[in-house]
Design brief:
By secondary structure, this protein is α/β, with parallel strands linked by helices. It is about 35% helix and about 20% strand. β25, α18 and β26 form a beta-alpha-beta unit.
Length: about 625
């Protein structure tokens, strides 16, 4: 949550910072701000409630001359989303400015202590407390900025990614990280440095980047090598890597929204996900091959995830239990560490996260490792915290996901889970060679079948207009499609603000059936699989109560197509891979309903893409 951009070098900083904020706006859009140090060492700070476009209006006609600056787009935690609470925050002396992602948990205690020393606060944020603390230490002890930051961070409890500048030293910028992502971009011959919450705001300027680990502080001084130390001033070698990211992946192209673009990208994304991993009808995952003993000897898998990734985990549970014949539990990462879970060294914990920075999932990983468990990560963001915190894992390789409502990451996660289950089942001998090859071959043609589903977009857009004014939705599915029902309901809630609930179809009679009437649209996922007859009975129960049924059925369906109000016909596939097809119409349905309602699809209210705080 929240987006940070920083620049120091020879170029005009403001255009770089604003461009970067636009790229990071999916991380938060309650308020935005920028701090610049001009050639006269004057610190100019401009900020406002609202989005980056609102900030640009505020900055019109202002002094924007600077080659060093920091900027921020905010998702509010402490303090209302007002211009006063917006970042950057400035110290009482007017010398320091800071941007911050995360939460300072002991900010209240520090604030009270600083007030007794005469410090006056302007905002209600925990971030201002941190910059005031750094300033107080620097002034009281006459220290340089790095030492002051180090001392301040030793007093801080919580999570942070910060960038600090001092107007008196416009040749230096300090950045630090703990439990919140931060990446440093290095220009040619150290002529300039960039800072971002991720690579997206700086990739067009450099592909040489260093990802900070927890407890590390970066010192950027133009013309000098990047310096990294910890809070105790121990030097750490900078790990600079080349990041392969296509700029086109973070642009909308000809699509009206990132969400629609990312829905349409799914066939190619899954081809990328599977490339090099399905060889001669066999699924080969290097992480499984290299850690065969740990994975094959596991007594239990525990999947930890949040939100959409948790829904993917539910599908993963069925895939792994079927293929590997060992028990699998699926846990909300946010609850896992607070209930004293029983975790053993014989367990394998699978952590799933699109961003690789989800705070609750990272904490669950730390707990699992403390208990001696082997941790396998499934992630999209290369170089993020979760891949670095796990023992091994697999990237889903679907490219950057900018739309807040996850789409292609979900299908990428399912694809990796399916490959993991088949690969491991083959190694364990719990899945026959015939079944392994059958799933591998079906995975190879899934992208083509996805393209057939995407061809239904106009039909789904037309259907969406009919249901734009519904106030409630019910989504039903069974087996592998029950988690798809949960995910479909979540998508509708996230972007259209219509109340929706996903339910196992067989459980409808145990409560939700009381809600069904002529005003209740019910989306039923009903492909022609082993549970088809059961779902047919559920649809008949809905129709007997005047419910409006939107049914997802397989090609050639005759029974459900006759009784449902609306039918979306999908290609047939293996039962275990059905979610890869059935989820796409639900993504499109949610998207088009939200568009019809005039909602901001890519930036739904109160949500942010990367949840880096509890």
């Amino acid at each position: 949550m929240c987006g940070i951009v920083g620049y120091i070098g020879y170029r005009e900083a403001y255009p770089i910072l604003i461009n970067g904020l636009h790229r990071l706006e999916y991380r938060g859009y309650d308020s935005a701000g920028v701090a610049l140090v001009n050639n006269s060492n004057k610190l100019n700070v401009y900020k406002t409630r609202g989005k980056v476009a609102d900030l640009e209006k505020v900055c019109e006609g202002k002094d924007l001359n600077a080659t060093i600056g920091i900027a921020h787009t905010r998702w509010a935690t402490h303090g209302d989303p007002t211009s006063v609470n917006a970042h950057p925050h400035v110290s009482q002396s007017g010398n320091l400015a800071i941007v911050h992602n995360g939460i300072i948990e002991n900010y209240s205690e520090i604030k009270k202590n600083l007030i007794t020393k005469g410090v006056v606060f302007k905002s209600a944020t925990d971030t201002e407390v941190l910059v005031q603390l750094i300033d107080y230490i620097q002034t009281k002890k006459n220290l340089d900025l790095l030492t002051s930051v180090q001392i301040a961070l030793r007093q801080v409890i919580g999570a942070y990614a910060i960038v600090v500048i001092d107007r008196r030293h416009p040749d230096e910028m300090i950045a630090a990280k703990k439990a919140s992502p931060l990446v440093i971009g290095i220009g040619k011959e150290n002529s300039e440095f960039f800072v971002g919450s991720d690579a997206s705001p700086i990739i067009e300027y450099t592909d040489k980047m260093a990802y900070l680990n927890d407890g590390e502080i970066a010192v950027m001084d133009v013309g000098h090598d990047l310096k990294i130390v910890n809070i105790h001033n121990v030097h750490i070698d900078a790990r600079i890597q080349t990041v392969d990211l296509d700029l086109g992946q973070i642009e909308k192209g000809n699509f009206p929204h990132f969400m629609l673009k990312e829905i349409y990208e799914q066939p190619d994304c899954l081809r990328n996900c599977m490339r090099g991993r399905i060889v001669n009808d066999n699924i080969v995952l290097s992480a499984v091959r290299e850690h065969k003993e740990k994975l094959c000897n596991a007594r239990r898998f525990i999947i930890v995830a949040c939100g959409t990734s948790w829904h993917a985990g539910l599908i993963g549970k069925m895939l792994l239990e079927t293929a590997c014949r060992i028990p699998v539990e699926v846990e909300y990462a946010s609850e896992f560490r607070y209930r004293q879970p029983i975790v053993k060294s014989t367990d394998v914990v699978i952590a799933i996260s699109q961003s690789g920075e989800t705070a609750d999932t990272l904490a669950a990983i730390q707990l699992a490792r403390q208990k001696g468990s082997f941790v396998f990560g499934i992630c999209n963001a290369v170089g993020s915290s979760i891949p670095r915190a796990t023992d091994t894992g697999t990237y889903i390789h679907v490219g950057p996901e900018i739309g807040v409502a996850s789409t292609k990451a979900f299908t990428g996660q399912i694809t990796v889970l399916a490959m993991l289950a088949v690969c491991l089942g083959n190694m364990k001998g719990t899945l026959s060679e015939h079944d392994c090859k059958a799933v591998a071959n079906e995975l190879k043609v899934i992208p083509q079948k996805m393209e057939k589903v995407l061809a239904l977009n106009d039909r789904i857009a037309e259907l969406s207009r009919t249901f734009t004014y519904a106030r409630n939705f019910l989504y039903l599915g069974r087996g592998y499609n029950y988690p798809v029902a949960l995910e479909g309901a979540l998508k509708l809630k996230e972007i259209s603000y219509i109340h929706a609930e996903g339910y196992p179809a067989a459980e409808m009679k145990h409560g939700p059936i009381a809600l069904i009437d002529s005003d209740m649209p019910v989306v039923v996922i009903a492909p022609h699989d082993a549970l088809y007859e059961k779902v047919l009975s559920n649809i008949q129960e809905i129709k007997a109560r005047d419910g409006k049924v939107i049914a997802l059925v397989s090609e050639g369906d005759e029974l459900i197509s006759k009784i449902a109000d609306e039918v979306i016909t999908l290609p047939e596939t293996a039962e275990c891979l059905e979610p890869l097809l059935t989820t796409i119409p639900l993504q499109l349905l949610a998207y088009h309903i939200a568009v019809c309602k005039g909602k901001n699809v890519d930036q739904p209210r109160n949500l942010a893409k990367s949840v880096t705080v509890e």
